[in-house]
Amino acid sequence: MADASLVTLDSSLKQHDTKVSSGGTVRAYSHDTGTGPVLCLVHGYPQSAYMWRHVIPLLKDKHTLYVPELPGYGLSSIPAKADKRTVGNLIVEGLQSVFGKDRKVVWIGHDRGGRVGHRMLVDKKPERNIISAMLLDIVPTTEQWRSFANPVASVAYFHWPFLASPAAPQIIEQIGGYNWTKGNLERIKGSNATGSARFQENDAIEHYSTLFAKPETIKGSCADYAAGAFEDVSEQEQDQREGRKVGLPTMVVYSASNLGRMHDVDAVWPKWVSGEAELRCVGIQDGFGHYLPEECPERVAELIEEWIGEYGK
């Protein structure tokens, strides 16, 4: 099922290939209940929108969904610039082409999708209509880089500086994008046996590994990490100097045994969120790892429902 997609798994979803202002295309999948905010579910590395396959059935009967493929990750076009603002604007442009500019948006981003969401929240552009967010298994990019002073963190997240290096695309192609991706997915998943089995359902590892064997995906995802080492960090440092912080209600959901092992997540995030905005940090226990929407989708969907009930009006 390497060529499977959310549409092949669920025929009720609509696929959109939207031409955007960059000249490229944003691919996404949607389900419209006709009311309420649009839940924008954004994936991370090294994955695709396929990662939401277990969560979508739990939400779609009650909530409107927009599930994009990250620009540069093999299914949406490579953007001219890979910084999080540029990528986020393209996703919002795609969403508004489907739902119009008046529908409110709740950003729900995992990994790189969460980092794009963080940028969107700090920018506070009213025309994006984002009213709240859930960020899954991340600390702010700058905090992640700071953690590399810890040798354990440097080894655990070695792919950060590697992927940001100009040599990374060529090296990965020499290793084989398929082999590189398969190894990384095996390395980061959690220790919970049930969660590991759920993660692997629908031939997910084969799906992602095949997608990341494409030179375009290797190039685009490495550009994302390069932006995350330079432009994104510079912007976050300037934000902190000038007092620009997240000003919308935000829930941070994280793996206690993964991210929580390297960071005091509950202590880090208040430094990046305005004291006037609601911030809630929830650590998921029981050995569920980084890929929370796949390893424990019921718990993630439950938290989404709880959050939308409070901050999705």
How would you describe this structure to a colleague?
Helix 3 (84-99) crosses helix 4 (112-123), helix 8 (168-175) runs antiparallel to helix 12 (215-229) and helix 9 (177-188) packs across helix 11. With 313 residues, the protein is of the alpha/beta class. 46% of the residues lie in helices and 15% in strands. It has helices at residues 6-9, 56-59, 84-99, 112-123, 141-146, 151-156, 159-164, 168-175, 177-188, 193-200, 204-211, 215-229, 231-242, 259-262, 265-268, 292-295, 297-311; strands spanning 14-19, 25-31, 38-42, 64-68, 105-110, 130-136, 250-255, 279-284. The longest helix has 16 residues, at 84-99. The N and C termini lie far apart (38 Å). It contains 17 helices and eight strands. Helix 4 links the parallel strand 5 and strand 6 (130-136). The mean pLDDT is 96. The relative contact order is 0.16. The protein has one domain (6-311): Rossmann fold (3-Layer(aba) Sandwich), CATH 3.40.50. The chain has an eight-stranded mixed β-sheet, with helices on both faces.
List the helices and strands and how they pair.
Blueprint: H1 6-9, E1 14-19, E2 25-31, E3 38-42, H2 56-59, E4 64-68, H3 84-99, E5 105-110, H4 112-123, E6 130-136, H5 141-146, H6 151-156, H7 159-164, H8 168-175, H9 177-188, H10 193-200, H11 204-211, H12 215-229, H13 231-242, E7 250-255, H14 259-262, H15 265-268, E8 279-284, H16 292-295, H17 297-311
Parallel strand pairs: 3-4, 3-5, 5-6, 6-7, 7-8
Antiparallel strand pairs: 1-2, 2-4
Helix pairs in contact: 3-4, 8-9, 8-12, 9-11
